[in-house]
Amino acid sequence: MAFRKLDDLGDVTGKVALVRVDFNLPMQDGAVTEDTRVRAVAPTILELADKGAKVLLLAHFGRPKGNRVPDQSLSMVIGAVEKVLGREVMFVPEIAGDIVAQAVGILQAGDIACLENTRFWPGEEKNDPELVKAIAANGDFYVNDAFSAAHRAHASTEGLAHVLPAYAGRSMQAELEALSRALDAPEKPVAAVVGGAKVSSKLDVLKHLVTKVDHLIIGGGMANTFLAARGVDVGKSLCEHDLTGTAEEIMDAADAAGCTVHLPYEVVVSKEFAANPPSLRTCNVHEVAADEMILDVGPSAVEALADALKTCKTLVWNGPMGAFETQPFDAATVALARIAAALTKEGSLVSVAGGGDTVAALHHAGVAEDFSYISTAGGAFLEWMEGRELPGVKALEA
């Protein structure tokens, strides 16, 4: 897709930029514990400020459901934002009206302010045109740098793009360019790794991917449902037996589309789900006992998956291969991630990964920095993998 970027902006000196960011940060005892999302949007904020714009930041925090909830005020994150930016940030306890107008009057060119939690206003999630108009009244142009909220058609994520000149921020731009390289216009062959606990949570993803990729690698608990659909007795494993028919339909659709579905033929099993259990063993999928559960993919199967990846030019990854939070059931995820990272570093693979568990798994494997792109967006990344149109992205189209 073609979308407007910061490069398309003219002189912004003294102009007011309404910038949608994601400051929905993890907190403990009133302090921010992780600032990745702030660091992601810092380049956009600093670029606009350095070009002389007055930067007003818009963000949500938590789920206040249209009420003013004191411990979900964005005033709580200002210190963390200032630390990352290395600049002073004014806090404004409103998102529209005279108080915001007064703040704009006080700000000098290059100054930064953060407005209050947009979700304190019921009209935010309803995309109320009146609220959109009121917010826009204090801005000259709009920048969306929050891909993680782009699947929501809210006032601050979609509505403003229709009433002000709208542009993608640097983080949004990088995300859209990476995703386009991965599925919209990828270099083939394309592989997708889809893991996680349940098929039901990723049905639409799987149905869409079989029409887009050459190799679909299914791991995690959801692989058990596909194995059961193939007639494998998966013992006590996590399995959605009521969805085996759907799994068969997905595999039939993959066959029709020329997509190869990879299921584990060797697995790591145990009679209990615990770290390094005494009943741990590796076996063929047809040797799983009635009182055992599949908790990871076996090493021989991982080697076969590595061979498949070596034939590919593009990889999209969402979800772990096994119960990676508990050792040794992280082995397959770590091994495959390191192979994908090595292929990326040598220049033979474009690798894009996303989703909370996936990001955690890649950091755990020590290869997060080696992938071509890692999306921290959860819902928006999944909806993109489902082939859905994201309202916040659509609104930026040139």
Helix and strand topology:
Blueprint: E1 16-20, E2 27-28, E3 31-32, H1 36-50, E4 54-58, H2 78-85, E5 89-92, H3 98-106, E6 112-115, H4 122-126, H5 129-136, E7 141-144, E8 166-168, H6 170-184, E9 190-194, H7 203-209, E10 215-218, H8 220-229, H9 244-257, E11 260-262, E12 266-270, E13 281-284, E14 293-297, H10 299-309, E15 314-318, H11 331-345, E16 350-354, H12 356-365, E17 373-375, H13 379-385, H14 391-394
Parallel strand pairs: 1-4, 1-7, 4-6, 5-6, 7-8, 9-10, 9-15, 10-11, 15-16, 16-17
Antiparallel strand pairs: 2-3, 12-13, 12-14
Helix pairs in contact: 1-2, 8-9, 10-11, 11-12
Cα separation of the termini = 8 Å
Class by helix and strand content? Answer: alpha/beta
Mean pLDDT figure: 95
Characterize the largest beta sheet: strand count, sense, and whether it forms a barrel. 6 strands, parallel
**Looking at the structure, what is the overall shape?**
elongated
Number of strands: 17
Strand percentage, roughly?
A: 15-25%
pLDDT < 50 stretches? none
